Amino acid sequence: MKEKIDALQVALNNELNEHKFYLKHAERTTNAAGKAMFNQIASEEMEHYEALKKISETWSKGGKWPGTVSLKVKGTVVGDVLKGLLKEADRIPRGDRSDVEAIREAIEFEAQGCSYYAKLRDDCSDPAEKEFFNLMANIEHEHYVSLKETEELLTDPAQWFRSHERGGLDGA
């Protein structure tokens, strides 16, 4: 049981630290794309934190995976945030050095988060627990992919726009 509580505590700390990281960079950046992405992921990380907190509290009290706590979190909508910027891509400036460094740092810890939740998923036998950690691993992976897209958007907005506009010479 202590091993599970320790793992949940690590996850709680990670989600809270990531939430703070994203909020800090959302406040700092003047780039609209960076601000939207940082704010969205900050919101999602806080939702993850709250879900994990309920699970941790239930586990600490009863020594088992909770049956009454909602084990679902909303999927990430960061990709939708970025797609919403397609109409403005030609007006989005390149990200400054701090924006790009923050994105790259976030890419690293989202990759680590994905691996961590995948390990928790693989190490458990309870189906509900396994499903929850699989969901968390998938969402962290989606954050990773969205951050990679944001990195491209901030470093080369024109290329990002070309690769996402889905238009071609045939007019499709």
How would you describe the overall organization of this protein?
Helix 1 runs antiparallel to helix 2 (32-62), helix 1 (2-28) runs antiparallel to helix 4 and helix 5 packs across helix 6. This protein has six helices and no strands. Helix content is 75%, strand content 0%. By secondary structure, the protein is mainly alpha-helical. The protein is elongated. The chain has one domain (2-64, 73-164): Ferritin, core subunit, four-helix bundle (Ferritin, Up-down Bundle).
Helix content: over 70%
Total count of helical runs of at least 4 residues: 6
Q: Count of DSSP E strands?
A: 0
Radius of gyration: 18 Å
Taking the alpha carbons of the first and last residues, their distance comes to 56 Å
- Quickly give the CATH architecture: Up-down Bundle
Give a quick account of the main beta sheet: strands, pairing sense, barrel closure: none
